[in-house]
Amino acid sequence: MGGGSGGGQQEWTARLMELPLGRWLVVAAALCVGGTAVYQLYKGATRKFREELLIGQMSQGERAAIEPIGVAGYIAHGVVLGLAAVFLAQAALRFNPEEARGLGGALEELAAAPFGPWLLSVVAV
Prior knowledge:
This protein is mainly α. It has helices spanning 7-18, 22-46, 60-93, 103-112, 116-124. It is elongated. Mean pLDDT is 79; it is low at 1-5.
């Protein structure tokens, strides 16, 4: 697929928008990505990810370390997916496939924002 600039996302978004009801398919894709983002934020904030871990097989130190790492990771993933969903929705609503960006584009937007390098560092961690 595309590189950091979102070329692959732009290509498939443009192809979808050429189809009958294609614009609405892109909106549906944006809603799916946005829903996934919300779920990732929920899992991080409520610590639901712990249900997937073998907590009983971890040492006390591992258990103490994994929770803040998991919270930060799930929330960061949710933020980046949320940005990608916003870009997709904008592309569909403005009927401009050039605005479609994937995760790479979302990370580029974070980097360009005020305090971008700090935000990007938090997402990376």
